Automatic annotation (TrEMBL):
Matches recorded under InterPro entries: Pectin_lyas_fold, Pectin_lyase_fold/virulence, Pectinesterase_cat
Pathway in which the depicted protein is active: Glycan metabolism; pectin degradation; 2-dehydro-3-deoxy-D-gluconate from pectin: step 1/5
Pfam families, per the entry: Pectinesterase
Keywords: Aspartyl esterase, Cell wall, Hydrolase, Secreted
Organism: Dovyalis caffra
Segments forming domain Pectinesterase catalytic: 13-123
Family: Belongs to the pectinesterase family.
Protein's name in the database: pectinesterase
UniProt subcellular location: Secreted, Cell wall
Length: 132
């Protein structure tokens, strides 16, 4: 249920810049059931700050504030092959997959499953109340 209200910046506007450099790093960002709105139309969902970022948006309503490209390789075209920038069942004018950057992809149910479970954020350790 997170709402993100984007205010554009002249130098570029990015919702995420995840810093993962290795496949062995167990990190990433997962946004589930969110709403993205704001002003402007050039906001990217993420940029490849490092070589192997993982960012997923699932069941998210994306307003026209989201750039049609959606994702940025951060001027490192080789990162198009190493990033995991994924979307799953997103909707709204900013979610159209037609203009997406090469690095972004529409995920299948099996591909998105690890990112939309509480296990991804070890939620059973901190999010749920302890058992009685």
């Amino acid at each position: 249920g997170t709402e993100m209200h984007v205010i554009p910046d002249e130098g570029g506007t990015f919702i995420t810049a995840q810093a993962r450099n290795s496949e062995s790093e167990d990190t990433g960002f997962s946004f589930v059931h969110c709403k993205i709105d704001g002003t402007g139309s050039g906001t990217h969902l993420g940029r490849a700050w490092m070589s192997r970022p993982r960012v997923v948006f699932a069941y998210t309503t994306m307003g026209s504030v989201v750039n049609p490209e959606g994702w940025s390789n951060n001027f490192h075209p080789e990162r198009d092959q190493t990033v995991l920038f994924g979307e799953y069942k997103c909707e709204g004018p900013g979610a159209d997959p037609k203009g997406r950057a090469r690095s972004g992809r529409q995920l299948t149910p099996d591909q998105v499953a690890p990112f939309i479970s509480l296990g991804f954020i070890e939620g059973s350790k901190w999010l749920l109340p302890p058992p009685n």
